[in-house]
């Protein structure tokens, strides 16, 4: 388990949580968040969209949409925060 220490928002270290949004999106939908792009040939465009905060609509996801978006926006500062958010949503879903 990762320590609960928090990292400054926007720090280089906290940016490692952004890819979790893409991973969660893929797991939930079994699809690429940007259906018009392919890896590895479109890696630069994918990076550009993330940097410009040009994300797909996560409101259509059946679960974890808010968490995916927060990961992309680097609003989590630790994996503990991500874990707690997922646990809270699971509890809410019943």
Distance between the first and last residues' Cα = 25 Å
Number of strands: 0
Number of helices, where a helix is a run of at least 4 consecutive DSSP H or I residues: 4
The succession of helices and strands, N to C, reads HHHH
What is the global morphology? globular
The percent of residues in helical segments reads 40-55%
**Mean pLDDT level:** 84
Task: Determine the structural class based on helices, strands and strand pairing.
Answer: mainly alpha
Fold and architecture overview:
By secondary structure, the chain is mostly helical. The protein has four helices and no strands. The radius of gyration is 14 Å and the shape is globular. The two termini are 25 Å apart. 18% of the residues are buried.
């Amino acid at each position: 388990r990762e320590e609960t220490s928090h990292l400054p928002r926007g720090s280089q270290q906290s940016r490692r949580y952004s890819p979790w949004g893409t991973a969660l999106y893929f797991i939930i939908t079994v699809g690429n968040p940007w259906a018009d792009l392919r890896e590895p040939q479109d890696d630069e465009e994918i990076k550009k969209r993330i940097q410009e905060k040009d994300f797909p609509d996560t409101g259509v996801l059946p679960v974890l949409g808010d968490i995916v978006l927060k990961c992309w926006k680097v609003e989590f500062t630790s994996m503990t925060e991500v874990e707690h958010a997922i646990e809270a949503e699971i509890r809410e879903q019943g």
